[in-house]
Amino acid sequence: MKKLLIILLIISILFSSCKPFRHDGTPKVSILKIEMHLSAFGVESDNSPSIEAYIDFKTDSSNCEKSYYNPAFKNSNYKLSSSEIKKVYGLLKKANLSKLRNEYTVEKSDQPTSTIIIYTEKQNIEIKDYGLEGDYPLQDLYKIVYKL
Fold first, then answer.
1. What angle do CA 117, 121, 125 make, to 5 degrees?
2. Host domain of residue 80
C-alpha cells in the first residue's frame, strides 16, 4: 500500500510539472477569437468587397460585414458555418503564431492594407498585411472568410 502511494505521488508530480507544448516544441495557446479587417480599398476596388469579420471560438459564432466602395453593389452581412469556423480555428492552432510577423508588405503600389487581430488567453497578436499576401495561415484564412 505504501509503495502504491509513493508511485501515485511520483506520477502526480511528473504530470503536474509537464509543460503545455505541442509536438513541434511550440507552446499550446488557447485561441479565443479573431477579428479580420480585410480592405479592398486600392487597385480596382470598385468590384471587390471589404470585409469586417468577427469570429468567436468560445461561442462558435461569427459575423461578417461585406461592403463595397462602389455604391452600385449592395452591402451585406453573413455568418460562417460551424465547419468554416472550425477550419479557421484549426488553421490557427496548426500555425506557429509566434513566427508570424507583425507586418507584411508587397512591392506593388496601391494595394489594400488589412488588419488581423488574434486574441489568445495570453496575448493579442495584431498583423498588418499590405497586399493580402502574408505567410501561412493568412492566405487560407482569407479564402475562408471571402468564401473563395
1. 25
2. 19-146
Give the Cα separation of 130 and 106 in Å (integer): 6
pLDDT (average), residues 103-116? 89
What pTM was computed for the model?
0.77
39, part of any domain = yes
Q: What is the pLDDT of residues 60-89, one digit of tens each?
A: 999 999 998 888 889 999 999 999 999 999
Q: What domain count does the chain have? A: 1
Spatial strand order of the sheet with 113-120 comes to 76-78, 61-68, 49-56, 31-38, 113-120, 124-130, 103-104
Please report whether residue 11 resides in a domain: no
**For residue 36, what is the domain's CATH number?**
3.30.1560
- Give pLDDT, residue 56: 97
Cis peptide before 137 (omega within 30 of 0): yes
Query: Cell for 23?
Result: 509536438
